[in-house]
């Protein structure tokens, strides 16, 4: 009997030990599985996760380090004058850089950076029903001197905003786009200077200040305003944009809409953000502004060709950039409105960031601003993608 009890006791102990081993083994396996999951999730959260087994890549980035790299790069950039640089990405993070005495609060002459601003102001009047893109100058400007038999007679607001109107020549006597003269008188002189040139609107792209000056007078008349200053003031009141900026070159009474502003880099950045967010124009006009309006036009004069050797196209008041001698890019991928003094506002829509090089060099140094941005662009693209 004692022997039987001994055998039973030994059997029970063996089962208990076996159960304990199994429990511990399951616990160990479970722990290993949990640790493996934690490691995988941690790697994936840093951008290294991959759905394909065996092909995981661990990669990490530091926004702080990338911004330090951008500081170093911009400090080494070649520039004939001090400048400021700002860029903002899709989540609202902003990077700012100032070199020398330049700041984002420094007031600079706009040169052609004002083209985008002027075009947006006019397009808002289209959205509000005061104008239509198919309107012609004679529909709003009394005494328009180009008659029905002239090839320029049917130019439209759309063609004026895309610089395909056929108004290629600026008045010489007097050079009214560069002196203090009556705004309306200057526009009439533009028409007289170009009448009879034989150009068919829509067929040629010619980068000049003439187009926007005529479009601006159409806007003034259609709105029932006394001057462009009234139109601009209404825009500022409605949007809160450019509170300290002015159209004052060559004068306040005769501002050159294609290049006559003073602005700060900070105010232009807020403008770009508002434009990017879609609150300045409705979706239809935004789409038209960002579309290639020169796809079928002959590029007769373009500073992108003469200065960079690149074939850029044009929308409404902005360039469609293409780093190629022949246009082979997707329209609207990267748009900009560089100025002749080297200021360079840009919007990279493919990587969803926008920014500006704010500076004022000598006339004709616009490629210097483009060069600064391109010098730091690899860093910016990494920064924009780093979460």
What does it look like?
The protein has helices spanning 2-48, 63-76, 114-127, 157-161, 183-194, 210-223, 228-239, 265-276, 283-289, 303-308, 366-385, and strands at residues 84-89, 94-98, 107-109, 204-206, 246-247, 261-264, 298-301, 313-314, 319-320, 334-336, 344-348, 353-358. By secondary structure, the protein is of the alpha+beta class. 42% of the residues lie in helices and 12% in strands. The chain has two domains: 1-60, no CATH class; 111-338, Beta-lactamase. The longest helix is centred in the N-terminal third of the chain and has 47 residues, at 2-48. α2 (63-76) runs antiparallel to α11 (366-385). β10 and β11 (344-348) form a beta hairpin. The chain has eleven helices and twelve strands. Strands 2-1-12-11-10-9-8 form a seven-stranded antiparallel sheet, with helices on both faces. Strands 3-6-5 form a three-stranded antiparallel sheet. A two-stranded parallel sheet has the order 4-7. Residues 1-58 have low confidence and may be disordered. It is globular and about 65 Å long.
């Amino acid at each position: 009997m004692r022997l039987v009890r001994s055998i039973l006791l030994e059997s029970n102990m063996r089962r208990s030990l076996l159960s304990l081993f199994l429990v511990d083994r399951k616990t160990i396996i479970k722990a290993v599985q949990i640790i493996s999951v934690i490691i995988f999730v941690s790697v994936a959260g840093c951008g290294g996760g991959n759905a394909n087994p065996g092909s995981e890549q661990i990669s990490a980035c530091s926004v702080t380090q990338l911004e330090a790299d951008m500081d170093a790069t911009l400090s080494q950039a070649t520039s004939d004058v001090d400048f400021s640089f700002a860029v903002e990405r899709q989540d609202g993070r902003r990077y700012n850089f100032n070199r020398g005495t330049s700041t984002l609060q420094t007031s600079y002459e706009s040169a052609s950076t004002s083209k985008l601003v002027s075009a947006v102001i006019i397009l808002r009047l289209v959205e509000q029903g005061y104008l239509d893109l198919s309107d012609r100058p004679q529909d709003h400007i009394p005494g328009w001197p180009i008659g029905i038999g002239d090839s320029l007679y049917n130019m439209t607001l759309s063609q004026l905003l895309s610089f395909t109107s056929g108004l290629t020549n600026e008045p010489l006597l007097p050079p009214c786009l560069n002196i203090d003269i009556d705004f309306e008188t200057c526009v009439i002189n533009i028409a007289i200077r170009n009448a009879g040139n034989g150009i068919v609107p829509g067929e040629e792209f010619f980068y000049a200040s003439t187009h926007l000056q005529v479009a601006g007078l159409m806007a003034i008349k259609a709105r029932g305003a006394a001057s462009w200053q009234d139109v601009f003031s209404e825009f500022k009141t409605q949007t809160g944009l450019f509170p300290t900026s002015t159209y004052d070159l060559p004068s306040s009474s005769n501002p050159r809409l294609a290049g006559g502003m003073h602005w700060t880099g900070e105010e232009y950045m807020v403008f770009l953000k508002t434009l990017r967010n879609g609150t300045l124009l409705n979706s239809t006009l935004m789409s038209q502004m960002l579309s290639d309006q020169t796809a079928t036009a002959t590029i007769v004069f373009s500073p992108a060709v003469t200065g960079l050797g690149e074939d850029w196209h044009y929308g409404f008041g902005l360039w469609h950039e293409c780093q190629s001698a022949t246009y082979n890019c997707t329209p609207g991928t990267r748009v900009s409105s560089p100025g002749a003094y080297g200021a360079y506002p840009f919007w990279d829509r493919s990587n969803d960031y926008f920014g500006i090089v704010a500076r004022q060099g000598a006339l004709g140094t616009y490629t210097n601003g483009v060069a600064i941005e391109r010098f730091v662009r690899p860093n910016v693209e990494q920064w924009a993608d780093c979460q």
